[in-house]
Amino acid sequence: MTDTSVPNHAPDGAAGPACPAAHPDAVALSGLQYQQTPFELYRELRRKHGAVAPVLLDGGIPAWLALGYAEVSYVTSHDELFARDSRRWNQWPNIPADWPLLPYVGYQPSVLFTEGAEHQRRAGVISDALEGVDQLELSQHCQRIADQLVDRFAGSGQAELMSSYAHALPMRAAVQMCGMPLDGADTEALVEDLRMSLDAAEGDDPVAAYVRVQERIQQLVADKRRSPGPDVTSRMIASPAGLADEEIVQDLISVIAAAQQPTGNWIGNTLRLLLTDDRFALNVSGGRVSVGQALNEVLWLDTPTQNFIGRWAVRDIQLGGRQIRAGDCVVLGLAAANTDPQIWPEGHVGAQVNSAHLSFSNGEHRCPFPAPQLADVIARTAVETLLERLPDIVLAVEPEELAWRPSIWMRGLTALPVAFTPVVQ
After folding, report:
1. Would you state the pLDDT for residue 18?
2. How many CA atoms lie within 13 Å of 293's alpha carbon, on the beta-carbon side?
3. What is the pLDDT of residue 352?
4. Could you give the CA distance from residue 251 to residue 226 in angstroms, rounded to a whole number?
5. Long-range CB contacts (< 8 A, 24+ apart) of 272-276?
6. Contact 289/283 with Cβ under 8 angstroms?
7. What confidence score (pLDDT) does residue 16 get?
8. Distance CA 21, CA 53 (A)
9. Which of 114, 134, 118 is nearest to 231 (CA)?
């Protein structure tokens, strides 16, 4: 049986150096400014601290936030200097057992924390399993799922799209790719626990939620060992790399989590852009003229994963003019890096349609091929199908009434209420 506890310390005999005190000018990564207008905070941090800022995580735990495009690219391209194994962290003696960020940083035998040849082996298994997904077939599955979801509210003339569509569609697509049943209380509970573990709201217990996620995926792997099918889980089990069940469980959690929450917010953020930006107002009818541009612009300006924790310094090193100590945590400021004025001449952020953004990270630990392409298929199909089914859809509130989720990690709306002409089924 896999150990489902979430460790909160370095392994025995591997404690890091004495924990450094927080920088006197460190800024807490929390508060209303982060919730609704994080880019103003990024600008202020960049003005005051430059490309790398001292910050405080939950509970006053010190870390560094890499804000610059060049700095984030450097960190993610140099695994020998900034590694993924969180057991290097020099703050473990200060981390309580119920720390809310444990699902992010508590070491697990997952591809997310592996390094070197082991990471290449594990990531290769995921890439091979995902390459087995036929993208045309995935698009057709997503269109069927989208039609089913739209059918539920099309006759009412109104809907709240984040819960009823934007998050529901990639969840169903992800579980179907992995060989789980589309419907049922078990699957819905898994999705809710994934949400809590990745983006906990007040009153949630992300650590307990993550344990339940592990238990459900353990059962899925056991089921697929007995009865394999044409799905990602079965292909991972059958890989010549011979991953142990515990490794497959952890890597499947990474795959499902990445396919569900960020893709849901990508869909929601794109729909918000299309419904609130006059540049798209004349082009969205039918959903095919500017959807691709909107999807790409969102990855630059409202990327679903704002910040990612993180990398840990292998040795003392300078970054962005800061002295980083061995074992320090560096948070990847993906959203800040994407809007770095150093890469946008004259402040024309997002003016170019290209894919040089860091929304899928960079380097050895970037989102493995072909995961970004599969996410694009899911998101594009979701947006296009909704606009085709409901061509006169409009926002049901004023744009300034839309609220962002109170998260420093994810960028997504709490709700996206819309109105449209009711469609008789």
Report:
1. 41
2. 14
3. 59
4. 19
5. 272/302, 272/402, 272/413, 272/416, 273/297, 273/298, 273/302, 274/383, 274/387, 275/393, 275/394, 275/395, 275/418, 276/395, 276/399, 276/402
6. yes
7. 38
8. 15
9. 134
Q: Identify whether the C-beta of residue 276 lies closer than 8 Å to the C-beta of residue 269.
A: no
The pLDDT value recorded for residue 4 is: 33
pLDDT, tens digit, 9 for 90 and up, residues 42-91: 988 999 999 999 999 999 999 999 999 999 999 999 999 999 999 999 99
How does pLDDT run across 225-252, given as a tens digit for each residue? 999 999 999 999 999 999 999 999 999 9
DSSP string, 26-58: -EES-SHHHHH-HHHHHHHHHHHHTTEEEEEEG
**DSSP-based three-state secondary structure for 185:** helix
How confident is the model at residue 19, as a pLDDT?
47
Look up residue 163 and give its DSSP letter.
Answer: I
Q: Are 328 and 310 in contact (CB under 8 A)?
A: no
Q: Which pLDDT score is estimated for 14?
A: 37
Q: Which amino acid is at 105?
A: V
Q: Which two tokens stand for residue 377?
A: 């298929």
Cα(first)–Cα(last) distance of the chain, in Å? 49
Q: Which residues of the chain have pLDDT under 70?
A: 1-21, 31-35, 183-184, 198-201, 281-289, 346-353, 425
Q: Do residues 411 and 404 touch, judged by C-beta distance below 8 A?
A: yes
Burial of 417: CB neighbours in 10 Å, binned 0-12, 13-18, 19+: middle
CA dist 182 and 228 (Å) reads 17
CATH number for domain 27-419, candidates 1.10.630.10, 3.40.50.1370, 3.30.1070.10, 3.30.870.10: 1.10.630.10
Structure tokens at 111: 């591809």
Tell me, what's the pLDDT at 103? 80
Domain locations along the chain: 27-419
Structure-derived torsion over alpha carbons of residues 191, 358, 335, 88, reported in degrees to the nearest 10: 80
Nearest Cα residue to 306 out of 411, 204, 157, 194: 411
